[in-house]
Design brief:
With 758 residues, the protein is of the alpha+beta class. Helices cover 47% and strands 19% of the residues. Strands 1, 2, 3, 4, 5 and 6 form a 6-stranded antiparallel beta sheet that branches. The chain has a 5-stranded antiparallel beta sheet with strand order 8-7-11-10-9. Strands 13-15-16-18-17 form a 5-stranded mixed beta sheet. A hairpin with a 2-residue loop joins strand 5 and strand 6. Helix 7 packs antiparallel against helix 8 and helix 10 crosses helix 13. The protein is elongated and about 135 Å long. The protein starts with 18 loop residues before the first helix and ends with a helix. 34% of the residues are buried.
Length: 758
C-alpha cells in the first residue's frame, strides 16, 4: 500500500506587523519627510534662481537705460558747445555751419539751426549755398528753453529727408537769459542698436528700447521688423505708472514673458528686458524630477536594507535639510560624506548648485560694476575732451587777434627804428621789440594748444633726440638734482616735429624741477620704451604700438582732486608770477597733434610721472640734413602785391617793404588782388594773408593766381594756429608776427629764383 503524506498545518498568521510591512512603514516614514525636504529644496532653488535671474535682468535694464541716456547726453554736449559758439553772436552762419559740420559725429547725424519761427537756418545735410530757409520738418518741444536751458529729446519719427526712423535732441541758444534760436541734432535710430550689440543678452531674452510714447527705438532681435511699433497696451499703462518695475506680459511676437523695465532719468526712454516664462519654470520641473528619481532610488534601497537603512538614513536626511536651508540663505555648501551614495550625490548637486549661484551672482555684480565704471569713465573723458576743445578754440582765436595787433606794433617799431636817430628813442624802441617778442612767445604757446600749428614733421630716432637733449636738460635744473636719461633698447622711431618734441620734454623737466623746489636734492628720470596699448586700456587712446616717453620726479606730488585739471590751459599750482599754466597744456596739445595722448600719475609725497604716448612709425628715421652753404643775399627790388585785410598791418607793412627797395601794390581782399593781378603784368611776387573776409582765403587766392599767372611766387602769412595744406602749391609760409627783414629776404629770394627759371 502507498503511504500518504500527512496534511500540512496552516501557519499561524501573527497579528504583529510583518518585517516587510515594518520595512515599508520605515521606508515611508523616512522617504515622506525626505520627499518634502526635497520638494522644499527644489522650490527654494527655483525661487532663488528666479530671483537671481530677475535681479540680473533688472540690473541689466538699469545699466542699459544709463547707456541710452549717455547716447542723448553725448549729442546734447555737442549741441551745448555749438550753442555757445561766438559765430552765432557775430551772425556768422557760414562759420557756424562749418563748426556744426566738424562737430557732427558722422553722416548718420545732422545738426540743424532753426529760428523761433521754425525756419531752418543751418542743416549740415545740405550744402550751405543751397539753404532756402524751409520750415523745420519737426517742431521743437513746447517747453524748450522756458524752464531752463537743458536739452530735450524727441520721440521716434520718420525723417522726411532720409525716410528712416530718427530721433532729435534739442538745445536752446540762450542769450541774456532769452532763447534766440534752436540748435538740434537729428540722428538715425539705428545708431541706438549698438546699445544691445555691445551688451549680449542671454539666449531667449528680448531687450527693447522705447521712447516716451512707447515706440520701439532699438531691439535685440527683429529690430527691422519691430522698429516704430508700440508696446502692448498693458505694458504702456505700466510704463506710465512706474519708472522701474516688473510686469507679466507678452512680446510683440506673442511670446509670454516676465518683463523688467527701467526708465532712463534724463531722456525719458525706457529699457524693457523680457525673460521667457518657460525659462523660469524649467529649472523647477527639472529639479522636481531629479528629486523624485532620488526618492525612488532611496525607497528601493530601504526595501533591501530595511533596518540598516532606517538607522543610517536619519543623519544624511538631516544633513541635506541643513544644506538646503544654507542654500536658501545664500551660503555656499561644502559636501561632507554621509555614508550613503545617494545622499552624497544629492549633496554634491546641492554644493555645485550653491557654487554656481554664488559665481553667477558675483559675475553679474562684477559685470554691472564694470559697465557702470566704463560708462562713468567714458563720460568723464568725453566731458574733459569737450572742455579742452572749447578752451582750444577760444585760445586759438585770441592768439589770431593778438598776432594781428602784434604784427602792427612790430612793423611800426621796426620802421620807427629805421627812421629814428635819437639814441633814447632807439633804446625805447628796442625795449618795445623785446616786449613784443615775449608776447609772440606767449601767443605761440596759445596757438600750439589751440590747434595744430605749422611745423616740420619727420621720422626721428628717440635715442638720437635724447642724446641731443641731454646737455640742455641737465643745464635746465639746479645743482643737487640728478637727471637720468634712458632712451630704452630698440625704441621704435616716431613721426613728429622734433622742435615741438624737444620743447615738450623740456617743459616736463622744468615742471619736475619746480615740483622739487624747497627740497634738498632729488632725481628726475627721463625714459623711453615701446608700449603695446590694448583697445579701451587708456581712455582716449586707440589700441596699437606706441613709444612712451615718461618724465618722473621725486617731488611732493599732485593732490588727487587736482589731477583732472593739470592739462587745462592757464591752470597752475605755482605762485602768481611763477608760471603761465601753459606748459602742460602745450605738452598735451603736442601729444594729441602727433596722434597720441598724455597721461599723468601722481601720489602725494612720492612724486609725479607724466607720460607721452606717441604712435610708433614703421618708416626708418629721416637722415640728418647737412647745413647748407651760405649763398649771397638776393637783390631787393621788384613789384610786390600785398594782400591784407587789416588796414593798420597793410599800411605799415607796405611802407616798410618800400623802404627795403620794393615797389608795393596793396589790396584789402582776395577778389581785389585778383583784379589787380589781372591788370598789372609787372607784379613779381605776392605777399598775402591766409584768413580774410569775403569767403576767399589766401589758399584760395593761390589757386586762382596759379590759373591766372602760373609760376607767380606767393608768400602766405598766417596769424592763426592752423596747418596749411600747401604741399602741391609753389608757396612759402611765414607766421605772424614776422620781422620785416625776414619777409623781405624771403620775397627777394622768391623773385630771384623765379628770374633764374625764366
Amino acid at each position: 500500500m502507498r503511504s500518504e503524506a500527512p496534511a500540512s498545518v496552516p501557519a499561524t498568521r501573527s497579528r504583529s506587523p510583518s518585517v516587510r510591512r515594518r520595512l515599508m512603514l520605515l521606508t515611508l516614514g523616512v522617504l515622506l519627510p525626505t520627499a518634502g525636504i526635497s520638494l522644499f529644496a527644489a522650490y527654494t532653488i527655483h525661487d532663488e534662481a528666479r530671483r537671481s535671474l530677475m535681479s540680473a535682468a533688472s540690473e541689466t535694464a538699469r545699466a542699459l537705460s544709463l547707456v541710452a541716456d549717455r547716447e542723448v547726453a553725448y549729442r546734447a554736449g555737442i549741441l551745448r558747445t555749438l550753442a555757445t559758439s561766438p559765430a552765432l553772436d557775430r551772425g556768422d552762419l557760414r562759420g557756424f555751419y562749418e563748426q556744426a559740420r566738424a562737430a557732427s559725429p558722422g553722416a548718420d547725424n545732422a545738426v540743424r539751426l532753426t529760428d523761433l519761427a521754425g525756419r531752418t537756418l543751418i542743416d549740415t545735410r545740405t550744402a550751405y549755398s543751397l539753404l532756402e530757409q524751409p520750415l523745420s520738418p519737426i517742431s521743437p518741444p513746447a517747453d524748450l528753453g522756458k524752464v531752463d536751458s537743458s536739452a530735450r529729446v524727441s520721440s521716434l519719427f520718420l525723417s522726411p529727408v532720409t525716410k528712416q526712423h530718427s530721433f532729435a535732441v534739442w538745445v536752446p541758444v540762450m542769450r541774456d537769459n532769452q532763447m534766440t534760436l534752436h540748435v538740434s541734432m537729428t540722428s538715425l535710430a539705428s545708431q541706438l542698436q549698438r546699445i544691445f550689440d555691445q551688451q549680449q543678452l542671454p539666449p531667449g531674452w528680448v531687450g527693447t528700447l522705447v521712447d516716451g510714447d512707447g515706440r520701439v527705438l532699438a531691439r535685440s532681435t527683429d529690430v527691422a521688423k519691430m522698429m516704430g511699433r508700440q508696446a502692448t497696451p498693458d505694458m504702456l499703462q505700466r510704463l506710465r505708472q512706474d519708472r522701474h518695475g516688473m510686469h507679466e506680459t507678452q512680446t510683440l511676437e506673442g511670446t509670454p514673458v516676465m518683463t523688467v523695465f527701467s526708465r532712463a532719468p534724463d531722456s525719458g526712454w525706457a529699457v524693457l528686458i523680457g525673460v521667457p516664462r518657460e525659462s523660469l519654470t524649467r529649472p523647477a520641473l527639472s529639479a522636481l524630477r531629479t528629486m523624485m528619481l532620488i526618492s525612488l532610488a532611496m525607497w528601493g534601497l530601504a526595501a533591501l536594507a530595511a533596518v540598516w537603512l532606517g538607522r543610517s538614513i536619519e543623519g544624511p536626511v538631516a544633513l541635506l535639510q541643513s544644506d538646503a536651508e544654507a542654500i536658501g540663505a545664500g551660503n555656499v555648501v561644502r559636501p561632507k560624506p554621509t555614508g550613503l551614495a545617494e545622499t552624497d550625490v544629492v549633496q554634491q548637486l546641492l554644493a555645485s548648485a550653491s557654487r554656481e549661484l554664488r559665481d553667477a551672482e558675483a559675475n553679474l555684480q562684477r559685470r554691472v560694476k564694470q559697465a557702470v565704471a566704463e560708462a562713468e569713465r567714458a563720460q568723464r573723458v568725453a566731458l574733459a575732451t569737450q572742455k579742452l576743445e572749447a578752451l582750444g578754440r577760444l585760445t586759438g582765436g585770441i592768439a589770431h587777434d593778438f598776432n594781428n595787433l602784434l604784427q602792427t606794433m612790430s612793423s611800426g617799431a621796426q620802421l620807427a627804428g629805421k627812421l629814428s636817430t635819437d639814441p633814447r628813442a632807439i633804446k625805447a624802441l628796442g625795449a618795445c621789440e623785446r616786449a613784443i617778442g615775449k608776447a609772440v612767445k606767449l601767443t605761440r604757446q596759445l596757438m600750439s594748444f589751440g590747434r595744430a600749428q605749422p611745423g616740420h614733421r619727420e621720422v626721428v630716432d628717440i635715442a638720437r633726440q635724447f642724446e641731443s637733449l641731454a646737455d640742455l636738460l641737465r643745464g635746465a635744473v639746479r645743482e643737487g638734482i640728478a637727471v637720468q636719461i634712458d632712451p630704452g633698447d630698440a625704441t621704435s622711431p616716431v613721426l613728429l616735429d622734433p622742435v615741438q618734441f624737444e620743447l615738450a620734454v623740456l617743459n616736463l623737466v622744468l615742471n619736475a624741477r619746480d615740483a622739487m623746489k624747497g627740497s634738498h636734492g632729488g632725481a628726475i628720470a627721463v625714459r623711453a620704451f615701446n608700449r603695446l596699448v590694448q583697445d579701451n586700456e587708456i581712455p582716449g587712446l586707440r589700441g596699437g604700438r606706441y613709444v612712451a616717453v615718461g618724465v618722473t620726479d621725486s617731488g611732493h606730488g599732485i593732490a588727487s582732486d587736482l589731477l583732472p585739471r593739470v592739462f587745462e590751459p592757464f591752470f597752475t599750482t605755482k605762485a602768481v608770477g611763477e608760471g603761465t599754466g601753459l606748459g602742460l597744456a602745450q605738452v598735451y596739445a603736442f601729444a594729441v597733434q602727433t596722434g597720441g595722448i598724455a597721461t599723468v600719475r601722481s601720489e602725494t609725497g612720492r612724486g609725479t610721472t607724466v607720460t607721452l604716448f606717441l604712435p610708433a612709425s614703421d618708416a626708418p628715421p629721416t637722415a640728418a640734413v647737412p647745413t647748407p652753404t651760405a649763398v649771397p643775399l638776393a637783390v631787393r627790388s621788384g613789384t610786390l602785391l600785398l594782400v591784407e585785410d587789416d588796414s593798420l598791418v597793410r599800411g605799415l607793412t607796405a611802407q616798410a617793404l618800400e623802404d627795403c627797395g620794393f615797389s608795393v601794390l596793396v589790396a584789402s581782399s582776395a577778389p581785389d588782388a585778383l583784379a589787380i593781378a589781372g591788370s598789372r603784368h609787372d607784379i613779381d611776387a605776392v605777399l598775402s594773408d591766409v584768413v580774410m573776409p569775403g569767403g576767399m582765403s589766401g589758399v584760395d587766392l593761390v589757386h586762382a593766381l596759379q590759373r591766372q599767372r602760373p609760376g607767380l611766387p606767393v608768400v602766405l602769412v598766417s596769424g592763426y594756429a592752423t596747418v596749411l595744406d600747401t604741399a602741391d602749391l609753389p608757396v612759402k609760409v611765414i607766421a605772424k608776427p614776422y620781422a620785416i627783414e625776414d619777409v623781405a629776404r624771403l620775397l627777394a629770394q622768391a623773385i630771384a629764383d623765379r628770374r633764374k627759371e625764366a
